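Q: What does the assembled structure look like for these inputs?
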Amino acid sequence: MPTPKPIQFHTTPDDHRIAALAALAIGIHIIEAALPSPIPGVKPGLANVITLFVLFRYGWKDAAWVSLLRVLAGSLLIGSFLTPTFMLSLSGACASLAALGLLCRLNTHLPGQGLGAVGFSLIAAISHMTAQLVVARYLIIPHDGLFHLLPVLMTAAVIFGIVSGLITQSLLNHLDQQSA
Amino acid sequence: MNPLALMTKSDIVFVGIAIMLLPWLYIAFWGDGNSGELARIQVGKQTPVLISLQTAQRYTFAGPLGNSIIEVKDGRIRFISSPCKGKQCIHSGWLSKNGDFAACLPNLMSITVSGHHPRFDSINF
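A:
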């Protein structure tokens, strides 16, 4: 009986970079999942710092890979794969990626330097929260009363969006200084 | 570290807009968007009477104990006199919001304020 050929994956340096960055994001994602939250649904979302960093350094495609891998692998590790939490996480990630993609196109038309990491992060956080709330409304709690949470959730999204953006921008500046 | 140094001008504009829109969200979703427009008066098992809260007027309804007087003024409604013992209905005071409710059980009367969309299907105590 012939021995079966071992399956070989050909990986590129790009794949390795995406895997390493996704692993970083997954690590942050899991540490955050362990933190208690005062209000359900409110989470700092610091893993998005990695997504934004990748977006600025390597472009939207890599950012989408890192973000979606983080949602998938993070949920497998936490044990929330295909649960409502996962659905919310995925819908949020997809919405913020869509918003970021749109923003990348629009940004060249903005006056001056255009948006930096803070603006991108803010818009990603807002679209993340909006998509989650809409998915929660239609899949999990089909009642309009859910929208009473919107002001609080949106306040959290704006605050954490700005904070993540500031962290990303200072990370980018820091690395620019080092490489210069 | 200065947070403003980490933002571009467009960033600052976007952050400013987002922060200014937040209070609007609180007003739109938590604000007093529930003022009532109509009051439904139920006396015993009779057909409920609908009265508008826009016209100031006094109404007298006859219950099993006697006449109760209800006053409408400035978009609000209240019991001002009732032949019952406890006067709970009068102590309920002014009702103005969609879903507000007062009753005089001895005289078999209740007032329910409603707006365009009823806020509650039913209420249990």
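Chain A touches chain B at residues 110-119, 122-123, 126, 147-148, 150-151, 154-155, 158, 161-162, 165-166, 169-170, 173 (CB under 8 Å).
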